[in-house]
Amino acid sequence: FNMKKLLLLSIIPYLIISQEVTTEYMLHDGLERSYILYVPESYSNNTPVPLVLNLHGYSSNAGQQMIYSDFYNIAETEGFILVHPEGTVDTNDFQFWNSGDIFEIDDVGFLSTLIDTITSEYNINTDRVYSMGMSNGGFMSYRLACELSDKIAAIASVTGVMSTNQINSCNPTNPVPVMQIHGTTD
What we know:
This protein is α/β, with parallel strands linked by helices.
């Protein structure tokens, strides 16, 4: 009985949101990329809504980030479209974001194209596009603030910081507010 109860409790979050989320695919830079899209029930094409990118950490994935961060309830209450993009796999078979210039993966281009794609499909308030992330996803959010300040209104990062090379090279076109979280009292 306890094992059945544990199994049921572990799948309940998926059952709750299974009707409101879709996994979408797009081709970018010769790679098939995916993302989990959550459109709140209150969405109407007549009203522009914010868009929030929620980026997973190193070795995690979009589905784990969706459950871990539990933002779909906030998206429903506040009326924003939520997207959990999927990083690519590194040489150690861990998913990651190219938050620096070390890898050949163009994640800035992918996320920029993803914003454009969702904006073309939904009525997005382009002045209210945000990025948030956990760890490597936070690092990537900082990179977006530096390189896509024409599209990103603000970022939030949990445990991810701006890298040293970003500090020296970050020159955003527009100011980007930042929220940084490192502990439960932040």
